[in-house]
Structures are given as C-alpha cells and as structure tokens.
Amino acid sequence: MKSRLQSSFELLMTLAFGLAILTPLVLVAFLQLSNATLSLTSIESQQAANKLASIATLVGSQGPPAKQLVQIQVPSGVQYIYIGSSSNNIGHEVIFVVRSPTGQSYITSYTPANISGNLGGLVTQGTYLINVSSVSNCPTNAYLGCVFMSPAI
User: Fold this and answer.
1) pLDDT exceeds 90 at position 111
2) Structurally, how many domains does the chain consist of?
C-alpha cells in the first residue's frame, strides 16, 4: 500500500511540475498569437489604404468624368475608414482606424489628389467594391473638384 501511495504521489508531483512549466509557455504563445493578429490586421489595412490612394491618384489625374471600380479587403479589427480627413471632408489621406490592445491605431496613406467620401460603414471584415470617381463639384464642398469614394451598391 505504501509503495502505491508513493508512486501515485511521485506521478502527481511530476504532473504538477510539468504543468507549472507548460502554463507560462502557453501564455507566451497566446500573447505572440495576439501580436501576430494585430500585425496582420495592420498590414492588410495598409494595403487597402495604399490601393485606394493609388486609384484616387490615377482617377484624379484623369479628371472628370473618370471613374473606376476597385475591390478592397477590409480586415477584422477595423473600426472606421475616413476618406480625405478625419472628419470625412476634402483632404489627402485614406485613414483606417484599427483596434489594438493599447487603444486605436491609425493606418494612413497619402494621395496628392483632393479626396472625399464616406466608407465609415465598411467596418466588418470582408471584400467590398468601391466606386472611385473624379467630380468637378465635390459633394462635401460644391466649390472644389475632388475624387469621391463611395461603396458600390
């Protein structure tokens, strides 16, 4: 009986020691996975912002009535997409607001063309078609021409 208790106790101690070593390793693995997911979201957001900015530059250089339909991939974690400026007025930036463990990250891409639009509703992960059109009277400011972006319906 004493021999069986001792072997059971030794097995229990071995398992407890193994668990004590594995627990921090599992926690580190989960933290690394979280960082990798955030990095992937940032990279995908930067690619989408760069794509929109380059198409806006192309359409803006052609002038009105140039139009183009572009497909972008919105990753998970995107909270808002601003076109032009952070108030969706005429500006020169495409801004993706991404959720991160420390708050919000702003992923931006610059274009020399005046741009405006409203893509704020495209915050769920997925593929979207965006109308990019050069207009002489921008909907957000009728006195300026711009490249206007809106979701394709």
Assistant:
1) yes
2) 1
